[in-house]
Amino acid sequence: MSSTSKTPSNQAVWLQSCGKLEVKAAPYTHPEKNEIVIKNRALAINPADWIKQDMGSFMFPWMKYPCVMGYDVAGEVVEIGAGVTRFKVGDRVVGMANGTSKLLNTPTKSGFQLYPVLLEHMTLAVAAGYEVITTCSPRNFELVKRLGASQAFDYNSKTVVLDIIRALQDVTMAGAISIGEGAIDACMDILDKCPGNKVLAMMTYPLPTPPPKHFVIPKTIATFVPWMAANYIKCKIRGIKNAFVEGSSLIPNGIGEAVYANFLSEALEKGTFVAAPEPKVVGTGLEFVEAAMKIQREGVSACKVVVALD
Q1: How far apart are CA 146 and CA 141, in angstroms?
Q2: Each residue's pLDDT tens digit, 110-153
Q3: Which residues have a Cβ under 8 Å from the Cβ of 76 and sit 6 or more positions away?
Q4: How far apart are CA 186 and CA 164, in angstroms?
Q5: Which of 18, 19, 32, 254 could be cross-linked to 56 through a Cys-Cys bond (beta carbons 3.0 to 4.6 Å apart)?
Q6: Would the pTM count as exceeding 0.70?
Q7: Crossing angle, helix 47-55 and helix 216-238, to 10 degrees?
């Protein structure tokens, strides 16, 4: 953006307090060194977005109200900061906004807005050479196999843990990733019985089921604290290393640069990385974010909840 260009008018979806969302003006922030600004064309909803909305300061306590959520964004570059060589104005990009992270903690770098600021280098298992075994509903078996999974198992089956253990007896485990209700305990049971690395990356937190509508924080604490104690004991006894993983960890550990800068563009072009699952577009405009969060909260299968932007 040239010095004579008019500064764009920005808007964002502000979380004003626990449960309260409001679309209103947000400052347009010029990029600093190694940053870019994009005109957001599409944003995706993740569980962390509505969990923060429901649980308030219990989730991401470093974020002070009002704040802006949002992670996955796609659009085109409108301004570049000093030191940026990979991008130019007009480039179409996909990236990860990390404004909610404790490391950054700024609404200017969150995704639920028209003009987010992204780190240049933030702009995968099968491609890394691993054999992937996964769980899903039977109707999605063919989908996950097309994406590279060698085997798929029904997560509702009463024998799913035993079935996976049998399938893994002749291979060396690299580790496990848990996502969703009951997945952490299932993964620990599998790691305990299989040869290889006993490492578990936990992507989602154990939450009350169904999600409480009243007394959210005390009910969540009542679920989470006993689970943490039991989980600690299980891991110690079984020799399993585990940790919760969230997006901001990609910034300092080099994985973000490896994926976004060195891998993703070429992989998308060659088709070795498939953009999946299919998007479920709820509407066009920031005003549809709250409805999209409700849909994601209620649960979806084999689709990504998305809001388009003009």
Answers
A1: 9
A2: 999 999 999 876 556 666 788 999 999 999 999 899 888 999 99
A3: 38, 39, 41, 90, 91, 92, 93
A4: 10
A5: 18
A6: yes
A7: 130
